Amino acid sequence: MTHRSSPARLLVVLDADSTLIRNEVIELLADEAGRGAEVAAATEAAMRGEVDFATSLRSRVAALRGVPASAFARVIARIEPTAGVTELVEAVHERDGVVAVVSGGFHEILDDIAPRLGVDLWRANRLAVRDGALTGEVDGDIVDAEAKAQALRGWAEELGVDPRRTIAIGDGANDLRMLAAAALGLAFNAKPAVRAHADLVIARTDLRDVVPLLP
Q1: Is 169:178 a contact under the CB 8 Å cutoff?
Q2: Catalytic residue among 15, 144, 171, 175
Q3: Dihedral of the CA atoms 52, 81, 190, 91 (nearest 10)?
Q4: How confident is the model at residue 75 (pLDDT cuts 50, 70, 90)?
Q5: Catalytic, out of 17, 31, 120, 144
Q6: Residues 123-161: b if buried by 16+ CB within 10 A, e if exposed
Q7: What mean pLDDT comes out for the span 103-112?
Q8: Regarding beta strands 121-125 and 127-130, do their DSSP bridges make them parallel or antiparallel, or are they unpaired?
Q9: pLDDT at 120
Q10: If we measure between CA atoms, which residue out of 139, 119, 120, 117 comes closest to residue 128?
């Protein structure tokens, strides 16, 4: 993180999969194992809140066992940024704000994608690799719903951002605590449970629609 001489005026925290980017990265990785459809169904259930996220993630990551680490480059090549992401990031920076991403996805992808999109801070899960292939396990603690909320609060404190100038944007059930922790929680490209509980629903899948809401 770049050291700032003064507090940031604004913090915008986004989910990654289906929010910052159009893809679900775990499904792209599962395609490499020939298990894309199976994992996609499990991801959909987790995002609707039908199953515990951490339990579901461990199960889905287990399906990736044996996928070569070289698959990360192929997955990164398939990533599609969400419409309007560049404009949103620029608008936040123009307001002396910080853009952060916290994801139930993976650092192995975000470490490439996030800086290219102008994101300032990011946190995600890590995939265990041994002998050049995925082991089917998550390396370290899982970034779940509570971890996302804690990340938003922690970043706001570190950056000196007034909690009333925090915005969270997400699509899945594991984003609900993060949306509640922010002053403004936005449902974006969201599942019904998220649309029902968010402060506002962004109807189009275009992050430019967030810009008028920035303080």
Answers
A1: no
A2: 15
A3: 120
A4: very high
A5: 17
A6: bbbbbebeeebbbbbbeeeebbbebbbbbbbebbeebeb
A7: 96
A8: unpaired
A9: 98
A10: 139
Residue with tokens 């029902």: 196
Looking at domain 10-213, its CATH superfamily turns out to be HAD superfamily/HAD-like (3.40.50.1000)
Active site residue 15: yes
What does the CA dihedral 153, 159, 163, 169 come to, rounded to 10 degrees? -60
* Residue 77 to residue 210: CA distance in whole angstroms: 27
pLDDT of 2 above 60? no
Quote the percentage of the chain above a pLDDT of 90: 80
